[in-house]
Structures are given as C-alpha cells and as structure tokens.
Amino acid sequence: MSDTDGKKPLGIKGPRSGSVKQSFSHGRTKNVVVETKRKRVVVPKPGAGGGAKDGGNSPATDPSKRPAGISDAELERRMKALAAARANEAEEAKKRAEEEKAREEERERRRREAEEKEREEKERAEAAKRKAEEDERRQREKAEAKAKPAAAAPAADPAAAQAAEARSAKPQARKPERDKPQDDRSKGKGKGGGGRRSGKLTVNQALSGGEGGRQRSVAAMKRKQERMRQKAMGNAEPREKVVRDVQVPDSIVVQELANRMAERSADVVKALMQMGMMVTQNQSIDQDTAEVIVEEFGHNMIRVSDADVEDVIKEVEDKADDLQPRPPVITIMGHVDHGKTSLLDAIRNAKVTAGEAGGITQHIGAYQVTTDSGAVLSFLDTPGHAAFTSMRARGAQVTDIVVLVVAADDAVMPQTVEAINHAKAAGVPMIVAINKCDKPEANPDKVRTDLLQHEVIVEGLSGEVQDVEVSAQTGQGLDELLEAIALQAEILELKANPDRAAQGAVIEAQLDVGRGPVATVLVQNGTLHQGDIFVVGEQWGKVRAMENDRGERVKDAGPSVPVEVLGLNGTPEAGDVLNVVDTEAQAREIAEYRQQAAKDKRAAAGAATTLEQMMQKAKEDKDVAELPIVVKADVQGSAEAIVQAMEKIGNDEVRVRVLHYGVGAITETDIGLAEASGAPVIGFNVRANAPARNSANQKGVEIRYYSVIYDLVDDVKAAASGLLSNEVRERFIGYAEIREVFKVSGVGKVAGCLVTEGIARRSAGVRLLRDDVVIHEGTLKTLKRFKDEVAEVLSGQECGMAFENYEDIREGDVIEIFEREEVERTLD
Ligand code: GDP
C-alpha cells in the first residue's frame, strides 16, 4: 500500500511481489520474501476506492449508497456473505482471545508453581537450619542442666514451651499458605489443582518426615528468631531466677553481697541508691540494709554470725568429775622501774636449777616454776598492764592472779593505780609484792597505807589482800611470795579438764626466720597435742612441733602450760584464742570467715581502709589534727608497746593515730596504706623489703627506722607538735651482703662480704638484717680488705667483717652500716 510508492528507507524496489530485493550500502543486496496479508473479505467498493480498507460497514449496507450495476439479489447475497464473514471473524477473534487467555493462565500457573516451589525450598532450608539450631540449643541446655541441676528446670521449660508452641502454631500457620494459591486457582479453571496440591503435600510430607513430625511453620520460626534477637539485645523476658541462700554477716561490702547473690554489683549499688543510700561497691552496709537488698533481688537472706560458722568449736561444759586442778597463771604489774622485770628474772633464776637445759631458760613469753611446797605456777613474762589489757581486749582472759609490784622506796605511783584498776576491772585477785626491801630507805608501811587510798587493803591492815616484802635483788621473800600465790590459787580452786580438745591463748607471736610463724600459747583448757589441727584468731594450723619454756621438745601441753607452737599458716596476734578442731577444712573455713568478718568490721567501722574513707574521716574530725602512722615491728610485744605509747601522745589539738601495726618487714601494702593517708611508716627493728623501698621512693612515703622505743616516742611527739626537724638521727651509709662465713681462730666468725651500697666504715654502727628484720645491732670488731685492717671499704668491693661480741651470722644476711648524728632538739 503506502510503502509501494514514495520513499523507501531501506530501498525496497520494484512492484509488490512475493519477494523484494533489499540493497544496502557498499553494494550489498539481499532478497527478502515479503508475505502479503490475505484479505479475508473482499468487498468491492461501490463508490470511489478506499472505503473497504477496513472492511467498512455502514456505506456498504446502505442501499442508497449502493454501487451502481448491482442487483438486489446480488446485494443480498453479498450482504449475507459479509455477515457470515463478520460472524466468522468474530468467532475467530473470540477463539484467539480464549486461546490467549488460556496461555496467560498457563503462564500464571507455572509462575505460581515456581514461586511456591521456591518458597518451599526456602522453607525447607530454613526448617533444617532451625532444627540444627534447636538441636544445638537443646544439647547445650542438656549440658547446662547436667552442670547445674538447680538451673535445669527453668532451662528445660522454655524448650518444652517452644516445642508445644511450634506444634500448635503449625495448623494455623500452614493453612492460609496452602489455601491461598488454591483459592486463586479455583477462581480460574482449577485445571490440575488437585495434582499440584498433592505434589505440594508430598514435598511437605517429605519435609515433615525429615523433621520427625515436629515441623515448624515459618511464623513460628520468625517468632523464635525474634525471641532470640530480643534475648541477644538483653530485653528478653527474664529467665527463671535462681533463688539463692545468701549468707550475710553483721556487715558486708556491697561487692561481696553482689557476689554472694550472683548479681551485678552495679545493680546492687543502683538498688541502694533507690533506697536513698549513696554507697560505692567497696563500701559496707549493715545486715538490715543487706536484708532489704537481698529480698529486693528475690533471694533468701541467711544471717550469720561467728557462732554459726564456729559451731564446730565445741563449747561443751565440762563435768565436775572431769575437772582437775590446774596451775594459776600470774601476771606481774606495777609502775615502771619498780622491779617487775627483776622480780620475774629473780623468780625464774631461783627456781630453774643451773643444771637444767644448761641453766638458760628460753624466752617464750611465759614460764613455769615449782614452789618448794610443790605447787606449779605459770608466770606470764610480759610485765605491765599494756599486754594484760590488750589481751583482755581480744577476749583472752588468761591471768588468774595479779602480782602488784610496788617499790618500797617509792610507794604508789600512777601506773600502780592503773594496774590496780585493770586488775579490778578484770576481777582478778591481787597480791602485793613490796619490792626493793633490801634498800635502806625502803618503807613498806608507807606502801601499805598508800594502797588504802586505792581500796587495796592488805592483810596487815586487816584486809584480804596478801602482801609480801621482797627483794628482787637479794631474793629475800621470794619463796614467801610464791607460797602466797599458791595459797591464793588454792582459794580460787582453779580447774580444767585435760582430756578434751585444747583451748588456749596466744601470749606472743612472731614471724621467725627459718621456722615461720611461731606463737607462744598458754593452754587454758584441754591438752594440746602434736599434730592437732587448730584455728587461732584469723589463722589456722597444725601443730608441727612444740617447745616448752626450757626449750625442750614436748608432744603434749596440758592446762596452764605455756608452749611455743610451730606449724601456723600465719602470725596470729597476742590475745588470740586457739581452738583445736577436727579437720583442716573446718579450721580453714573458720579462719577465712574470721578474716572476712574482721575486714567487714573494719570497713564498717570506718577504720581507714580506703583513701576516700580516710579523707572522709579526717574531715569529720577536723577539730583535732591527727598524725597518722603505720607501725611495723619485729615482735608483737614491741608493736603493741609502740601502739600503746603512741596512743598516749597527743592533746586536745593533736593526736597520733596508728592506722595499722603488725609484725615483720615493711611491705608494699604498708607503703600503699601510708601513701593513701599521708602517713610515715615506722619500722621498729625491721626494714622495708626491696619492692617496698622502691615503692616508697616513688610515692614519696617516709620510712623511719628505730631500735629504741624512746627515740621513736620522742620523734613522734615532736612530729605531732609539728616540731620534728627534718634531720635524722641515724644515717645509713652503706649496705653489705654476706657471701660467705669463715671461722678464724682467735677472731671467731668472719663474714666475707660485698659492699652493695655506699660505704662500710670501721667506726660506724652496724646492724645485722635477716629477712629485713634486725637480728643484731652493734659495732665491728674488724674490717678487712684482703689481709689488711682498713677504715673504709667502698661499694662494689669485697671485705671481711666481724661483729663485736656476736657470732650468729649467716650467708645471705645483710649488714646495714649507719652513723649517728646529733640532732638539734627544738623542744623537749
Ligand atoms: P621494771 O621497769 O618494773 O621492769 O623494773 P626493773 O626490773 O627494770 O627494775 C628497775 C631498776 O630497779 C633496776 O635498775 C633494778 O636493778 C632495780 N631493782 C629492781 N628490783 C630491785 C630490788 O629488789 N632491790 C634493789 N635495790 N634494786 C632493784
């Protein structure tokens, strides 16, 4: 038609035919077969051509427009033919439309089928994944349940619930999914619907077979996934809580409470804050507050006290039949210089025969003597009321009888009065020893009358207190004194049961070089045997060996017998009570409990344990200036004596506060404590170990060493009044290490040393240190470099040293070389 003439873009030439020749550029040609469309109906146009182009209708049917030369019959025939052609065409179009629709449906069906298949595929993969996860989870829970039977129930529950949920969710969730495509299909022809359904079910059946009948719907999977996601984010529905029994002592540190509840300490602090208590996790709260918290967290509170944990210590009342008389324990008290030490020595020397154990008694803090009449008396070797009271403060009432020493040439003095008061407070009977009666100026009667003022009425003045005139120097009256004590003991009817587990009190304790912690224990009841397991204060141990006051090994120690005990795990304190228990576990448990309790108590009482607490404390009592100090000493006795002396220093404006005291070398812990409170560390016959020394240097903590208590007291007094000069009394000029010990005839033991620091000077003072504890202080007998006696040896050089009057030197000991300096005293 229109493409037969005019411009032909592809250069189709020639008339309309079955084929056309296409010519392209560069002379290429191509023959193309052109298919001309057959006209289905050919209706000759009555008028001018072109009207039948689209098989037109109205002009053809209109008789007025009928072409000329056509008869009616012809017209009718043509019209029929036209109508038939039209009907045919409509029919064909309909058929085509129907065919098209069917094809479309078929495509749609295939698409859906593919989709479904894909979904099922996905579902199956997902289900397999879930199953794997589920299995893993179940296994884990099983393992957990095995490990924690208590937690098993809550852990198993969610699993069961989940499984049940999955089962119940299955029908609802699956239904719409399966029905939806089916509904769609039924709207169409529903062709082959049953077959597809059965095919789908087969897949599902296969799937469910793989799951062992526990198939899960996608919805259930999704829910589970959501739950897991929430759990991971931490806002899961709370797991079933494990209710714990929480043991709470009288006071407990917040963190420890949180630990015992297995809760986070931050949560506990938060809970406390909500209660209006601003505390940190390192602070302590009391039992009542703890109870509120424990309940808040849904646990069970169990109040505990020493008694609960220490129930294993059998406090059985002894039957009267089991009781046997025991020796009295005597403490000698009195004013300074009235002769307490002399009297103790005199008694010991008078009663310990020279042949016994070389005539030398060992100082273990107590000793026993036998009177002429055969009575056995146990004397505590620590005179003075300081030890007496500090022991009493710890709960050890050891003393049965107090011997009050009053010098006949001096009469009653302040400390005499103090001693009287202490004895009375403890309810312990007294015997007055009027000492120094050998002196011409002695006036025993004055002593007796003086004592009246303090309500001590001696027998001579028709009272009940026995009095004996003695002389520690001459030994006069000593036997009488001992008999008086024995008589007093008889009146007291002191008894104990030797056939039970031992209970005793620590008289003295120290960390002994080589032997470890050593304690002198005075057995109060029962008998202590070698091998016994015991708890003593915050320590525990097993009796490895025992020595009596004569230095003899003993296997048993009965009531009122003092023994030195080896085999402790730590150094107890004087006054600590020793109890024998059945098992090591019990001993350890009680000791640990006591340690914790002591820690809790200290923290609760605000005893300085942390910097904040110290600062807080200091601010609270700002009207009184305090000089805090940390004291370390070689033996417990010295430490306590220093503490007592320190506590006496001070007035209304200033006072000394002992932050901590203990036995042994100065350690890093001591330095830390001192630094925290700006305190100096006092070392009495002990030294700082190397790490502590470094730490002190770094932190600027002052360490002061003393070996004379009066020097220490003077210095602290001066420091407390802000008058202590920065100059030191002693200056260390060097240190030497003993590498070898030789025996040189005529000289004795000589130490082969290496001067490690500073200088060794012949004229200087020397101290022998063993494990940072001062063993000996004195002067040098020789200082040799090779064979020559020299005045000085420098650092890095070797030399030989020997001490004046001292032989106990060992390899590894350290010699401290010091010089004394005169210090200007501004006040005294
Ligand atoms: P303490 O401080 O109570 O232990 O007293 P001491 O035992 O150290 O004695 C103080 C001083 O008094 C020492 O110099 C002793 O020698 C002296 N002393 C002790 N007892 C007697 C005594 O009975 N007669 C004489 N004349 N002097 C004594």
Features of this protein?
alpha+beta, 39% helix, six-stranded antiparallel beta barrel, 828 residues, six-stranded mixed sheet, Rossmann fold, Arc Repressor Mutant, subunit A, Elongation Factor Tu (Ef-tu), domain 3, disordered N terminus, disordered C terminus
Structural overview:
The protein has 828 residues and is of the alpha+beta class. It starts with 18 loop residues before the first strand and ends in an 8-residue tail after the last strand. Among the domains are: 245-304, Orthogonal Bundle (Arc Repressor Mutant, subunit A); 327-443 and 474-482, Rossmann fold (3-Layer(aba) Sandwich), CATH 3.40.50; 503-603, Beta Barrel (Elongation Factor Tu (Ef-tu), domain 3), CATH 2.40.30; 624-721, Translation initiation factor IF- 2, domain 3 (Rossmann fold, 3-Layer(aba) Sandwich); 728-823, Translation factors (Elongation Factor Tu (Ef-tu), domain 3). The longest helix has 76 residues, at 72-147. Helix 2 (72-147) runs antiparallel to helix 3 and helix 18 (668-677) packs parallel to helix 19. It has a 6-stranded mixed β-sheet with strand order 9-10-8-11-12-13, with helices on both faces. A 6-stranded antiparallel barrel has the order 15-16-22-19-18-23. It is elongated, with a radius of gyration of 54 Å. It is built from 20 helices and 35 strands. Bound molecules: guanosine-5'-diphosphate. Guanosine-5'-diphosphate binds next to helix 10. One of its GO terms (cellular component) is cytosol.
